[in-house]
Structure formats: structure tokens, C-alpha cells
Specification:
The protein is mostly beta strands. The chain is built from no helices and 18 strands.
Length: 191
């Protein structure tokens, strides 16, 4: 479902159904729009499989689209509940911001297409999700010390970027390969 304006969902909650190989998908496609709805997200979006050998039943690597996908610079200001493990993506040269509190299960930030660079997913609230965070070939920007909820942050050829306005403590463990970039005030790493 493409949301081409900030009132696309009226004032109600937005629910995206799960399913690991497939599932629903919301694409925020309005430059500068702020979506104030509450989002309830599950799964990784409508990934596609192939039935041809030798990749029978495997996911195409260039379809990592996400249950919530930022196609333009936009903001979700309402709360976001991760009903189950959920994938969020941002297109090349796009910064998708979630300023509402993210709660629930595990979060994945992925590069949406194999042939293009990933954008930035920015989490600016003190989030409460508990399943940890996986960032794959993408950039996750945090605005607070608790921006990544609880649990470890796994980087896979990815960037964890801090853009906090004041000094913060970051208690999550960071594992994997990639970069940690400090773009704001100081960060005290205790994880």
C-alpha cells in the first residue's frame, strides 16, 4: 500500500500483517510528510520467492522491502508496535524518521534493494522494544541512548550512527561488522 500523503490513513491505527516470507507492506511515499497514526507492524514485507532451480524456495536478495518502507524523506510520529520480528527499510538517499516510541519485538533495518545503496532509518525516541536490533547493509541513526531498545545491536556491513543532541549512555552490546559513527554529542558505551 502506497501512502502518498500524510492523511492516507485518516486518523485510525495502521496494521501490517506478518508472515516471514510474505506479508503486508506500507510504503511512505510523500516527501516531508508526517504520519501521526499508530503503526502495528509484523514481518518483512512482500519478499518474493522463486520456484526455479537452483534457488527454489529461496528469497530473491534484491527484494528486502520491509513491512514499513520509506520511499521519501518522511516521519512516523505515532507509536510503532513491533508485533513480531519486523523489517523497516529506507530507499537510497532517503531518511525515514520514527519519532514515536517503538515497542514490542525484534527490529531489522535492511537495505531494500541489492542494486542500490540504502538510506537512513532514524529512531529519535527512547524506545522500549526488547528483541534486539539487526542492521544489514544499511544505516540506523539513534537520537537517544535507549533508541535501540534493549538487546544487542547486530551489524552486518552496516552503520550505527548517533545523532544525539546531548551526551547519552548506550548500554546495548554492539556486535558484527560495520561502523559506529558519532554525529552528535558524546556517547558513553557501557554494553
Amino acid at each position: 500500500l502506497y501512502a502518498a500523503n500524510a492523511k492516507a490513513f485518516a486518523e485510525g491505527d495502521v496494521h501490517v500483517g506478518g508472515g516471514w516470507a510474505r506479508g503486508g507492506r506500507i510504503i511512505l511515499n510523500k516527501e516531508g510528510a508526517t504520519f501521526a497514526n499508530a503503526f502495528h507492524l509484523a514481518g518483512r514485507g512482500n519478499s518474493h520467492t522463486t520456484d526455479s532451480a537452483p534457488q527454489k524456495g529461496r528469497l530473491y536478495q534484491n527484494y528486502r522491502k520491509g513491512a514499513l518502507s520509506f520511499a521519501k524523506n518522511a516521519t512516523v510520529s505515532g507509536p510503532v508496535e513491533l508485533v513480531e520480528e519486523t523489517r523497516i527499510t529506507a530507499a537510497d538517499e532517503v531518511k525515514g524518521t520514527i519519532s514515536g516510541v517503538v515497542s514490542g519485538d525484534r527490529l531489522q533495518i535492511y537495505k531494500p534493494f541489492a542494486d542500490y545503496d540504502a538510506g537512513v532509518v532514524a529512531l529519535t525516541a527512547a524506545n522500549t522494544y526488547t528483541g534486539g536490533t539487526e542492521v544489514v547493509s544499511a544505516t540506523l541513526e539513534l537520537g537517544t541512548g535507549s533508541g535501540a531498545g534493549t538487546g544487542k545491536v547486530m551489524l552486518d556491513n552496516a552503520t550505527l550512527q548517533f545523532a544525539n543532541a546531548t551526551p547519552v549512555t548506550f548500554a546495548n552490546a554492539i556486535e558484527g561488522t560495520g561502523k559506529v559513527r558519532l554525529c552528535g554529542a558524546g556517547v558513553d558505551f557501557t554494553g
